[in-house]
Amino acid sequence: MSTATATDAAAAGRARREASRRLWRLVVYAMLVVGSLVYAFPLLLMLRTSLTPVGMLMADPPVLFPWPPYWENYVILWEEVPIPRWLANSTQITVISVLAETITSTLVAFGFARTHFRGRDKLFYGVLATMMLPTTVTLVPQFILYQSLGWINTFWPLIVPRFFGTAFYIFILRQFFLALPRELDDAAEIDGANRLQILLRIVVPLSGPAIATVAVFSFMNRWNDFLEPVIYLFTPENLTLAVGLRWFTGRHGTEFHLLMAGALLMTAPMIVAFFLAQKHFVRGIALTGIKG
Known about the structure:
Shape: flat
Structural class: mainly alpha
Helix content: over 70%
CATH topology of the largest domain: MetI-like fold
């Protein structure tokens, strides 16, 4: 009798714990859904405004979502401003910059992490020290330099500096490379591999998450970059999409339906890139701090 009672009490306890876990899981999911909706609200509002006719923007009561969607806003925007040219400019600058920053940062990080030379650590600390300099401090000297080279109103000031790497990306990749076993390098050297072969055949294949993280960071920064293009680019046909939307606002005022259509074109590649690379992105962030 006592054994049956104890068994029933244990089963009841397990049932209460399971119910408690389910309730807590439900609360967590509810909080995640609410938080996701809060963060998604600006994007949904942008989408709704871009598909709303201008006469319905200030309707009372407001239209929750126009039906059918008014796709003509995108056609009007495409015809009024050189959107294809701006997209091409942004794509060209972004693609070249991502490749340059990723490749150069990988090479520099490999040197700091897997080779030994006098002053290596001091040089690395010097690279990190450049991260302390605010961007605004170097704007005027850079502008004077690029002006003397005749690069103003060209893409060169936005592309050439990327071939010298970025301190933050070098730091991320160095941390990841340090976590790889040095025995792999030793075994490759015994087989006759040189440093470049070790990098290309061993380190790079094992560092996919970190390199993908750097590429995503670089893509986000270059695609969204506004400060440097607005300083160095003047003529409408040379503008990037971010600066072009600001130019459009100055010329046409606050036509919200068209402005939101342009903003959605600006945001869409970012969303697609993140969802395609989110696995590598999250894993790379988690692994870059394994070893200092």
